[in-house]
């Protein structure tokens, strides 16, 4: 867990050895304490260097240990002892110094960083704060404003930025450990008092209170209802107003309030869920670590609409040659200009050169004959997509993978019109595709494991969080969205307003409530889908649209809104009104209030006061209930996959963990009881009927979300 060696006859080299990230587990802390004691007591040793094995200094505390009781030596006294020692200690940072790893570097008297190293205090992203002295030492070293920014955002910084800020003493392109040993030899006998950061006085700006107020406001705006950044601000205030000995106590008190909070549990769950989601597995036994992806050097995109353009940018940014195809010259030219503009802006922001040389634009499918993979991103119309896939089958070489960017159509039906169904897979990007991190990789029943592995690995190369899902209408994300949206519109019928529902959801933590989100996405998309699926259309009496369709409750209000040409932000009117088409400042619209009042009186609905609690329960429990059905149906392999989809694709607040984790935190018994209650009140809404899996889990004593998988006996998986 820590290796001790004597190098250059007088330098103790302590190497943390806890792969993969040398996390400070109890065993590592124990070994470090022993090694430091040995170094400080050995008269031959004049200096110490601390480094990490395999080119990684340290990824911080072992997050897996947070769930259990503290074992082994606590970190704070160990770090204090390193700083107080009479022999110079040099940190040799390669790879990462994060969280407790960064705090370890802060107590070392000197720091050498490799030029590719990254440093940061990401504790806030895990719902806690840097409680091994980080909130007390960093402000003393770099000042309050810079420390506040790093601690409240958890941002990673480069070695160069750390040098500028005064966190590291030297950046090297050579082996950091060897450089640190030479540095340590030169530091012997130099006075250490000015190198003990906890002894420094925090440089305090004259307007401290005003500064803290501004940062508090910013944090509250960015992360509504999230506790950890606010606690970080209080801890940094202590660094400015208290001596170290008192400040560290304050830090520890604040940590105690966060450590066992639901938010910390949720955020730590998200950390592991994100990593679990990449580990796809099929009932056949094929999985992420036994299926080799193909190497993709060239790709083609069909369709340069909003989605197609975003996908081209994502691919080019990942260094892949892209041929973009459109059907008409004018569309091709517009798409080309937009893609080039997007790539140039993106490159400027990242300080790199735009990879325009990777792009080719064409009107001819014939140009695709040699590409490794095609992503079709044409209009969401099955007949059109089938025609494209038939053409691709003829044009592309037999080994080319054919992917469809559909948000819910049957991937297997598309595979069926090709000569290579095993090479067909869905790649459901989220709009805007070059910004949104989520990718649903939709596995058809005939998609080969190599095809799935390739799509998953391509997603990773593009910087996406990829989740493998089964093939059913809407897949995971959009299938779950339906009951959520339905509940929101039913609540409108019953007496709520769009602003009330949005506010309840935003107070819960969503960046945008359901109606503001729909206005942003465009209301016409859903309207077209409802028309295509026969739920609405010319046969429906526009004056008296029925409130039941296909044997269940149906709310026609969204169709009525669209019939007035109100398609959301792009038309300047939707559930809200905007200053102009494309405007973003949503204001309640009296016309919508009128529409709701007229609607309720036409159907003799007595509006009632609806509480925020009911809004949250009906929208979110219906959402999770569909998640349980998705697990039962084998469309998602585990609850973590569903949660990751909602976190990265639908703005579910991270500090709530995702819909499935949230249900587990509320308590499955309670979720079941509320769903039964609402289903009794609304028997014509099948989505409110508790799913058999939910009932089963409750009957099994509501096990933890990580073990639900053991209780799911899927007859057949769609994965
Ligand atoms: C008093 C306390 C005060 C201090 C608090 C802290 O320090 S809080 C901590 C503050 N630190 C952080 O928040 C840093 C969190 N870590 C990271 O940000 C990234 O892992 C990385 C940048 C270090 C490496 O990225 P990468 O893409 O190269 O790799 P990857 O991300 O795929 O991970 C590989 C494997 O390592 C696992 N694992 C990783 N870290 C930890 C950990 N600390 N612990 C345990 N496990 C950890 C990870 O789960 C995965 O396991 P799997 O799935 O193979 O079983």
TrEMBL record:
It is found in: Peroxisome. Monomer. GO terms for cellular component: peroxisome. It holds the Pfam family 3HCDH_N. Pathway: Lipid metabolism; fatty acid beta-oxidation. It comes from Cyprinus carpio carpio. GO terms for biological process: fatty acid beta-oxidation. InterPro entries: 3-OHacyl-CoA_DH_CS (IPR006180), 3-OHacyl-CoA_DH_NAD-bd (IPR006176), 3HC_DH_C (IPR006108), 6-PGluconate_DH-like_C_sf (IPR008927), ClpP/crotonase-like_dom_sf (IPR029045), Enoyl-CoA_hyd/isom_CS (IPR018376), Enoyl-CoA_hydra/iso (IPR001753), NAD(P)-bd_dom_sf (IPR036291). Residues 299-471 form the 3-hydroxyacyl-CoA dehydrogenase NAD binding domain. Residues 474-578, 615-706 form the 3-hydroxyacyl-CoA dehydrogenase C-terminal domain. Keywords: Fatty acid metabolism, Isomerase, Lipid metabolism, Lyase, Multifunctional enzyme, NAD, Oxidoreductase, Peroxisome. It comes from the Eukaryota. This is Peroxisomal bifunctional enzyme. In the C-terminal section; belongs to the 3-hydroxyacyl-CoA dehydrogenase family. One of its GO terms (molecular function) is NAD+ binding. Its EC number is 1.1.1.35, 4.2.1.17, 5.3.3.8. It catalyses: (3E,5Z)-octadienoyl-CoA = (2E,5Z)-octadienoyl-CoA; (3S)-hydroxyhexadecanoyl-CoA + NAD(+) = 3-oxohexadecanoyl-CoA + NADH + H(+); (3S)-hydroxyhexadecanedioyl-CoA + NAD(+) = 3-oxohexadecanedioyl-CoA + NADH + H(+); (3E)-decenoyl-CoA = (2E)-decenoyl-CoA.
